[in-house]
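Lecture 7 notes: from sequence to structure.

We start with a single chain of 305 residues. Read the sequence below before looking at the structure.
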Amino acid sequence: MMRAETPGQFATALRWLHVPAWALLVSLVGFVRFYLRAGRPWLAWSFFGLRTLSLLLDFLVGQNLNYREVTCLRHIPFFGESVSVGEGVSNPWMLVGQLSLLLLVIFVADATVTVWRRGDRRQALVVGGSIVFFVLAATVQAVLVLWQMVHAPITASSFYMGIVVAMAYEMSWAALRAAQLSLDLRESEERMTLAAEAAGFGVWIWSIARNQIWGSERWLGLFGFAADAIVTFEDVIQRIHPDDRKMVEHAVRLALECRGDYGGGLPRGSAGWHPAMDHGPGPDVSGRGRQAGPDAGCVDRHHRA
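Now the structure, written as tokens:
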């Protein structure tokens, strides 16, 4: 639009500008809903409806949503360049588009308050706060220019660039935080494994949801599993002494609801008890089981004798 040479070129460029603007603003609402996990759905749908209506009006009423007719162009200096600014008859239907922007600000502000109350205050300030500030600033500037109160080019893209910078910062911080947590978890698992091995314990963790059991090298050896074996709960039960299987299965079922001990015979005919204490949660309300299942320590009594 800034390089338009005739009123018709300016009006056409402004009309088609509303198409990418619609896509950008709808994507922004989706980002807030899915990334911040906040925002009232009825506000989001109200914004979507109004913004879509304004896009239809853009092609149905006047030369575009903002002007019934662009009558002339004014050339003004802008950062050392001469740019075109339209003048003409304002289209009152642009109030629909501006009302949708007000709904967007309200929607994001409401989502920001929800995230703040949830305890994610940094995320609320960086993401929610920046979106509210820059959308509000862009809206005020557009209102002043399009209602011809101020003769200046529309520079909404510069305001939305601020939103992009804030999003990039937040997502980069989240990625770095996830990498640090992964490193901390790996170090914690290594320390736990070293401590268990030094004490002669075998450690196992049962993922109830996937019905897979991770075991330390010593634990896998105690039960006769290969180091790269994929172990299920049923595989472990088959390694328990036949006289103890029903007791162990019953004890494990109880352990899913509360902490408890159980004992069983080691495989391959070796005698001895290995106690286990449940330290993990039971199935969630959906019945699928939580990712972190019970963990336990197994002691080979022959090695500790």
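Strands lie at 67-78, 81-90, 201-207, 212-215, 261-262, 276-277, 295-299. Keep this in mind for problem set 3.
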